[in-house]
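Data availability (excerpt). The following record was deposited with the supplementary files.
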Amino acid sequence: MKPIAICYPTCGTCRKAEKWMKSNGIDYTYRPIKEENPTKEELKSWIRKSGLPVSKFFNTSGLLYKEQNMKDKVKVLSEDELIDILASNGLMVKRPILLEGETVLVGFKEEEWKVLLK
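Predicted structure:
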C-alpha cells in the first residue's frame, strides 16, 4: 500500500514535502485535508500511532488557530475536546501528515521522511 500524504495545496511545507517525494521517486496517495477532513476516529488513531500529544496536531501558525485563541485552549481543554476541534476543520490540523503502515509523521522533517520511506 502506498503512503498517504495529507496536505493542503497552498501550504508551503506540503509543497516542499511533495516535491521531495517526487524527486525521490516515492509513489504516494495525495489526500486534500480541507476536502477530506480527518474524522475523530482517524485523529485518535493517528495521535496514538504517532506517540505525540494532541497539541502537536494543531497548525499553530494558522489563522484559524490564532483567531480562536487556541494557544490558551490547548492548555485547558480535554483531549476529546481538542480532537473535536481538530475534526471540525482540516485547516486547524498541522500538515503535512504522512501515513505509512503503523507510522504517522506530522509536519515535514526530511530526515524522518527519508528513514521511513527509503
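Summary of structural features: DSSP finds six helices and four strands in the chain.
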